[in-house]
Amino acid sequence: MPKPDEEEPPRPDGGAEEAGPSGGRREEELPALRPPASPPQILSMSELLETAHEISKLTIAHEIVLNHDFKLQAVNFAPNSLENRVKETLHKAFWDSLKEQLSASPPDYTQAIQLLQEIKEALLSLLLPRHNRLRSQIEEALDMELIRQEAEHGALDIPSLTMYILGTMAMLCAPVRDGEVQRLQSLTDPVQLLREIFRVLDLMKMDMLNFTIQSLRPHLQDHSVQYERKKFQELLEKLHNSLDHTTEWLRKAAAEVAAASSQSPPHPAVSSSPASLSQGAVSSSTAVPSPTSVLNRGYMNLLCWEPGQKEYPETLFMDQARLQEVQSQVNQLTIIAAVLLVTSGMCGSTLFGSPGRRRVSMQALVGCGMSSRNPPLGMEEDPRSK
């Protein structure tokens, strides 16, 4: 069924509509009514969030496999940004509230107990499956029920709990964090100490995540192709018509390959008769380009892709930065080759006339616009001339 804004296609018999007595079409020629085309499926908010989550996981897995230097890093806002100001304001309000509670008489440990609970969960998350003994020790030392009872009777000893937490952190942290943990032991203000403990714990959790990534990389490399194919098919079934830019990119490459093959003359060794030559020309002009040639042309076109052009193929979004780096290297090599070609054409007799000579006069170097501090390879100045 044509779209409302498109022209209605002609009748199958090619004739015009025949008017009836009242000026309309005859009743017997009215086509059977067809149900309107179903509109494209619209995803709900939960489905959109789920799809975005799946794309994020696919992107991270793809980056882990291809980028051996990939590491997760904490998000750091610019010092003068709105996000950083809001973050600092909220954190200051939170820790000021904790300081007021601990300075009250009697102290209010409600917020402090919640922080100890979060610290306990963070320490347990850093343990490996074989750390059964250490897990039991943490559960016993940071027994939240016992801590609540001590707080109710005013016998909660926060300094001793923080010292145990620092000792456990020293055992679990990476060597690069030893200095961070040692500096915490010099803090005496309980509020400042708790704040710094959370900061270092965030660093330790990031270290553990990166260690896990390094451990899983060989397994991901062995199964990345099957995983990405499966996820790609699942996303394609959810997001119909989501490869328009990729389709246009491949169509353009196929048209260029077909045009190049039709313009190329037939091979003379095929046949010498005019009939066979004409048949060969027809077959070459009507031949379907191979997928490999189309992909090769498409990737070559990416090397000339404009940086601000938005219609980038959807299937290459995850590798866009790497492809742009290759494009930059190709441009640099092209410039270097052009400079060498011009230099060779203008100063070839001087630079390349005597391959056996190791000494180039200063006048030749200056005349070719080359710096005497960096002579070309194989043309170093003869030390005997100094």
Could you characterize the architecture of this molecule?
The protein is mainly alpha-helical and 386 residues long. Among the domains are: 82-214, no CATH class; 245-263 and 284-347, no CATH class; 354-386, no CATH class. The chain is built from 13 helices and no strands. The protein has helices at 45-66, 82-103, 110-125, 132-141, 144-152, 158-172, 178-184, 190-238, 244-263, 274-286, 291-302, 320-352, 362-367. It is elongated. The chain starts with 44 loop residues before the first helix and ends in a 19-residue tail after the last helix.
What's the topology here?
Layout: H1 45-66, H2 82-103, H3 110-125, H4 132-141, H5 144-152, H6 158-172, H7 178-184, H8 190-238, H9 244-263, H10 274-286, H11 291-302, H12 320-352, H13 362-367
Q: Could you give a short description of this structure?
A:
The protein has 386 residues and is mostly helical.
- Distance from first to last alpha carbon: 87 Å
Q: What is the approximate shape?
A: elongated
Structural class by SSE content: mainly alpha
Helix content percent band? 55-70%
Biggest sheet character: none
Q: Ranges with pLDDT <50 over ≥5 residues?
A: 1-39, 269-285, 357-386
Count of beta strands: 0
Percent of residues in β-strands: under 5%
What is the N-to-C order of secondary-structure elements (H for helix, E for strand)?
HHHHHHHHHHHHH
Indicate the radius of gyration in whole angstroms. Answer: 36 Å
Number of helices: 13
Average pLDDT score = 77
Quaternary? single chain
